[in-house]
């Protein structure tokens, strides 16, 4: 599978497993899992031929580790980033003292006034390191990295989760916990 096909397939999987499974007639369970055989069949029916080995390669080579197989390999799901209501069964964890959020320079003033909101997603996504946050911000324009005082948030009762691909998640980040 060539690199361009891996990217195209990864994008299609993101659409199907994170946002709109109905586009190919796929059903996800309450935790966001899809049956692998059904996914492959439905993808083929929508014009995307994909073998099991191709799917394994996409999961393995995705630089953000967006997808994961169940322990028995019979199911697949997106690790985070859903706009549909699913329960990843993540346990609340104590976050590191500081986390980071990458955004575009055009969004900074608004975020610093109103905070970070999940909006159409289930959670706000936060990074462990500046490099990752910078890459995320660069997808939206000139990047700016905001520092999140996760330790203070946690002390006030805000819940944090860590996804299978090490993205930290929370429902919101009030502006008072953000700095540039």
TrEMBL record:
| EC number assigned by the record | 2.7.1.-
Q: Which UniProt keywords apply?
A: NAD, Transferase
Q: Name one GO molecular function term.
A: tRNA 2'-phosphotransferase activity
**Pfam (any one):** PTS_2-RNA
Q: Does the keyword Disulfide bond apply?
A: no
Among the GO biological process terms of this entry, one is:
tRNA splicing, via endonucleolytic cleavage and ligation
Give the transmembrane ranges: none
State what this protein does.
Answer: Removes the 2'-phosphate from RNA via an intermediate in which the phosphate is ADP-ribosylated by NAD followed by a presumed transesterification to release the RNA and generate ADP-ribose 1''-2''-cyclic phosphate (APPR>P). May function as an ADP-ribosylase.
Q: Which NCBIfam families match?
A: PRK00819.1-4
Name the protein family.
Answer: Belongs to the KptA/TPT1 family.
What is this protein called in UniProt? Probable RNA 2'-phosphotransferase
Give the originating organism.
Neolewinella aurantiaca
UniProt lists the gene as kptA
